[in-house]
Design goal:
Strand content: 25-35%
Distance between the termini: 42 Å
Number of strands: 10
Shape: elongated
Length: 242
């Protein structure tokens, strides 16, 4: 590794960060690999423990590295990228990237629609809806906490939704309930994770995206309102301007 320049105006921790990033780019570490500890960095570059700690903490904050308590610091996997240019399925996006999606069902129940849910589904407040809550994972790592709401009148057998761990949700809607989803409107809002932290295995206050989707059938009737908490350190969305 390179040496730090003690005569430079660039802070030592920033120089150390740059060296770590350069070595990542060179392929010294692969995603999931354990990198040098703060103590090892301090000794190798002859800097204080606070300097190496600051460099590591900044890279963790940036999502480049992640920590596992009691085990060390590791190189993060690349963020999952998704284009907003067309209608998409999260499961299919992962499969196209060679990743293995996994859905864990947390809850399926009947409840009364809140004002927000009712407005999105164009039904009356208090009308019964089916709520499906699931944890969407990649290689057993939780990425998205998702809650979907459907008008109860559209779901004849609530137990069929339990197949979502094995079959894509929209395939179940089409095959079991004759509900075809072919368009959607989504909004995105930056948030900080709070009580969702336990499910997503991150610290409270970690950055995330609140994604809200209203899905429509071919007649433009809303058939699903979905609220997703998306980990900001693992996903990013983009659009192409032409």
């Amino acid at each position: 590794m390179e040496k730090l320049d003690t005569t430079s105006f660039v802070p030592l921790y920033q120089q150390l960060k740059d060296i770590i990033i350069e070595n990542i780019d060179r392929g010294v570490w692969s995603p999931g690999d354990k990198i040098y500890s703060e103590q090892q960095l301090s000794e190798q570059f002859n800097v204080s423990r606070n300097t190496s700690k600051k460099a590591i903490e900044d890279l963790v904050q940036d999502g480049v590295l992640y920590r596992i308590q009691g085990k060390g610091t590791f190189l993060s996997y690349p963020k999952i990228e998704q284009s907003l240019s067309a209608f998409y399925s999260f499961s299919q996006v992962l499969k196209d990237k060679g990743l293995k999606p996994k859905d864990i069902i947390l809850n399926i129940k009947v409840e009364k629609a809140t004002h927000k849910v009712a407005k999105a589904l164009q039904i009356s407040k208090g009308e019964e809806v089916i709520m499906l809550q699931r944890l969407r994972c990649v290689k057993d790592e939780p990425i998205i906490l998702e809650s979907s709401y459907f008008p109860k009148k559209c779901i004849r057998d609530i137990e069929k939704l339990s197949l979502v761990g094995e079959i894509p949700l929209y395939d179940i809607l089409r095959n079991e309930f004759d509900i075809i989803v072919n368009s959607a409107k989504e909004t995105f809002e930056p948030i900080l994770i709070s009580e969702e932290a336990t499910y997503l295995e991150v610290k409270p206050g970690s950055p995330a995206l609140l994604l809200e989707r209203v899905a429509y059938d071919p007649s433009k009737v809303p058939v699903e309102f979905c609220k997703s908490i998306v980990r900001g350190d693992r996903c990013k969305f983009y659009t192409e301007l032409i």
